[in-house]
TrEMBL record:
<keyword id="KW-0770">Synapse</keyword>
<feature type="transmembrane region" description="Helical">
    <location>
        <begin position="189"/>
        <end position="209"/>
    </location>
</feature>
<feature type="transmembrane region" description="Helical">
    <location>
        <begin position="328"/>
        <end position="347"/>
    </location>
</feature>
<keyword id="KW-0968">Cytoplasmic vesicle</keyword>
<feature type="region of interest" description="Disordered">
    <location>
        <begin position="490"/>
        <end position="514"/>
    </location>
</feature>
<feature type="transmembrane region" description="Helical">
    <location>
        <begin position="289"/>
        <end position="308"/>
    </location>
</feature>
<keyword id="KW-0813">Transport</keyword>
<dbReference type="InterPro" id="IPR020846">
    <property type="entry name" value="MFS_dom"/>
</dbReference>
<comment type="similarity">
    <text>Belongs to the major facilitator superfamily. Vesicular transporter family.</text>
</comment>
<feature type="transmembrane region" description="Helical">
    <location>
        <begin position="129"/>
        <end position="149"/>
    </location>
</feature>
<dbReference type="InterPro" id="IPR050930">
    <property type="entry name" value="MFS_Vesicular_Transporter"/>
</dbReference>
<feature type="transmembrane region" description="Helical">
    <location>
        <begin position="247"/>
        <end position="268"/>
    </location>
</feature>
<feature type="domain" description="Major facilitator superfamily (MFS) profile">
    <location>
        <begin position="14"/>
        <end position="472"/>
    </location>
</feature>
<keyword id="KW-0812">Transmembrane</keyword>
<keyword id="KW-0472">Membrane</keyword>
<protein>
    <submittedName>
        <fullName>VMAT1 protein</fullName>
    </submittedName>
</protein>
<dbReference type="GO" id="GO:0005335">
    <property type="term" value="F:serotonin:sodium:chloride symporter activity"/>
</dbReference>
């Protein structure tokens, strides 16, 4: 009991709780990235065409059941693509008859395009997978403002525990979903849980770390949990899916979520209602603040780049690089590692030069995205993805403390609403990115998608200069004068000045008593 009592008063243990919550939420966010495209391809395309022949090179024994060489060619509707992987399997049954047509394909570069069949299905899957990934952010976008208002009324502890409960249900639903509709529902449900966890968690950190420098460091550590979740999620999901099964990564996450719930029960006391001590600034007022809008825009556009990569990069790798399933998740590993480094490195600098870190970060995001289509294999993605992750880490770790600093400087120090706006901006990028990215890839191609979003980040970067020295707003001056209501009364006698802590109402009551 003594340990729990001291722990509940320790900001560091609160930081641990928020770190773990963001970690698990973002593992679940990215663990589905390499699983969903191949799972839908296996269950829908291969299931519908199982009688026609194999779709991947692994099931080679099915080839001899088809008529000889000409039938295989007609099935793939391409005289060079399919026979590369099956030439040796088809040759023995045909004797010498299969060798003459078997030689021309050997000089063709077709194997690069022969990894997966169903080009039209893959083009449609870009859009469907993008919408599935965007559903989480779209739901989170709608729920965030209400969570911000709720935290101002009842505090941060209960919303944090609600977020854990919903995330646990979503994780279990992912494990046992076998159709696109159920996966879509589980992803949308995760958005509700993420809204509660992220808004309440970041607001809680801002309230227990009032000093700007300490707050920047704490935000950097908490965002390190986000980065670590992104780092673990995609490789963990691809390896577990290929070697164990689809449900295995989600069941592991469900068990870890239960441990997180027990930690919250011990540290946060989620049954206790503790509303904000100061009245929060209305959302409409914050949305009219140009400096908050600039900071929110930087969060939105920088994260939109990686949000567009999540549904489109794995499918592009399947089409152009012949990548095996485990590489689809490993491609995001450099971005995740560099994001982890960037958030911890630049969180401490946010209160000094956050605007400069954000401006440089957005420019690097744009340049890195422009370099992604130049890769010809997974090793060519290491540099662009590492630069992308490091730059987004610069922007996120700088902008999150700046949002708290802006609300301290220009409004009232109640953080639930402003971090709801920050999370809305974050989710806007992850909602617009996947949903439009798939459609743009289908219409213009993957390289043009990278050019568009990269140029958008480079063009937005100079606006971060406006955050260099934001002025204190008149509303904040009025609030300060209300906190010291008798200070302007220079005409008051000395006896009245001695009663400085009293409010005007209590002063009036004293006169009535006299």
């Amino acid at each position: 009991q003594h340990w729990l009592a001291t722990g509940r008063a320790s900001p560091r243990l609160v930081l641990v709780v928020v770190f773990v919550a963001l970690l698990l939420d973002n593992i679940l966010l990215t663990v589905v990235v390499p699983i969903v495209p191949t799972f839908l391809y296996t269950t829908e395309y291969e299931g519908a065409n199982s009688s026609g022949g194999p779709a991947l090179p692994e099931p080679a024994p099915a080839a001899p059941r088809a008529p000889p060489f000409s039938a295989v060619l007609s099935y793939f509707d391409n005289t060079t693509v399919p026979v590369w992987g099956f030439a040796s399997a088809v040759e023995p049954p045909n004797g010498t008859g299969s060798s003459p047509p078997g030689h021309p394909p050997s000089t063709s570069p077709a194997p690069r395009r022969g990894c997966l069949e169903g080009g039209e299905f893959l083009a449609q899957e870009n859009t469907r997978v993008g919408l599935l990934f965007a559903s989480k952010a779209l739901v989170q976008l709608l729920v965030n403002p209400w969570v911000g208002l709720l935290t101002n009324r009842i505090g941060y502890h209960i919303p944090m525990f609600i977020g854990f409960t919903i995330m646990f249900l979503s994780t279990v639903m992912f494990a046992f979903s076998g159709t696109y509709a159920l996966l879509f529902t589980a992803r949308a449900l995760q958005g509700i849980g993420s809204s509660f966890s992220s808004v309440a968690g970041l607001g809680l950190l801002a309230s227990v770390y009032p000093d700007d420098s300490e707050r920047g460091s704490a935000m950097g550590i908490a965002l390190g949990g986000l980065a670590l979740g992104v780092l673990i999620g995609a490789p963990f999901g691809s390896i577990m899916y290929e070697f164990v099964g689809k449900a295995s990564p989600f069941l592991v996450l469900a068990f870890l979520a239960l441990l997180d719930g027990a930690l919250q029960l011990c540290i946060l006391q989620p049954s206790r209602i503790s509303p904000e001590s100061t009245k929060a600034t209305p959302v409409s007022t914050l949305l009219r603040d140009p400096y908050i809008l600039v900071a929110a825009g930087a969060l939105c556009f920088s994260n939109m780049g990686v949000a567009m990569l999540e549904p489109t990069l794995p499918i592009w790798m399947l089409q152009t690089m012949c990548s095996p399933q485990w590489q689809l998740g490993m491609a995001f590993l450099p971005a995740s590692i560099s994001y982890l480094i960037g958030t911890n490195l630049f969180g401490m600098l946010a209160n000094r030069m956050g605007w400069l870190c954000s401006m440089i970060g957005m420019a690097v995001v744009g340049i890195s995205l422009l370099c992604v289509p130049l890769a010809t294999n997974i090793y060519g993605l290491i540099g662009p993805n590492a630069g992308l992750g490091f730059a987004i880490g610069m922007v996120d770790s700088s902008m999150m403390p700046i949002m708290g600093y802006l609300v301290d400087l220009r409004h009232t120090s109640a953080y639930g609403t402003v971090y709801a706006i920050a999370d809305v901006a974050f989710c806007m990028g992850f909602a617009v990115g996947p949903s439009t990215g798939g459609a743009i890839v289908r219409a213009l191609g993957f390289p043009w998608l990278m050019v568009i979003v990269g140029a958008l980040n480079v063009a937005y970067a100079p606006l971060c200069w406006l955050l260099r020295s934001p002025p204190a707003a008149e509303e904040r001056m009025a609030i300060l004068s209300q906190e010291c209501p008798m200070q302007p009364k220079s005409y008051a006698p000395k006896e009245a000045l001695r009663e400085f802590p009293l409010t005007e109402e209590s002063d009036g009551e004293a006169e009535n008593v006299e």
